[in-house]
From TrEMBL:
It comes from Camellia sinensis (Tea plant). Pfam families: p450 (PF00067). One of its GO terms (biological process) is sterol metabolic process. It is a single-pass membrane protein. The lineage of its organism: Eukaryota, Viridiplantae, Streptophyta, Embryophyta, Tracheophyta. This is Cytochrome P450. Its cofactor is heme.
Amino acid sequence: MAGGLKPWPVRCGDGQQAIPCPQVYWIINTTNKNSVYFQDPKKFDPLRYEGGEAPAPYTYMPFGGGLRLCLGKEYARLVVLTFIHNVVKKHKGEVLFSKEKVLGDMVPMPEKGIPIRLHPH
Ligand code: HEM
């Protein structure tokens, strides 16, 4: 194909043979937990981002980055913030499985989906 984008699905080869191209998958989880940039990276510590400097570019990217940055980033942040605000303000939460296993995948997935019992204030 002369110039421009290749048709999807992308095939490598000489045009006669269709050979699947090798693909490289980026694992967000390992980027975000790089101990070179984050102290004690596996510790759940939301306060690590408070007051200090912003993480170095492309070291913390839950929504990806660059040209393929998540299109829903600002919407998702607003929804999550509003949801957590309302839950925390009106309820006390109880995590049912505090030692729940997190399965490793491209995105970490808690085995049981982190069930929480909410008690109204
Ligand atoms: C907490 C919620 C979300 C997270 C953590 C998230 C994360 C991501 C990540 C990591 C990517 C891949 C970026 C890359 O390939 O470099 C992505 C892509 C994308 N996301 Fe999200 N996302 C979220 C919510 C949403 C929502 C609510 C929408 C739509 C309303 C959305 C629409 C998209 C689209 C369209 C892409 C593909 C962008 C592209 O390839 O050009 N996302 N997202």
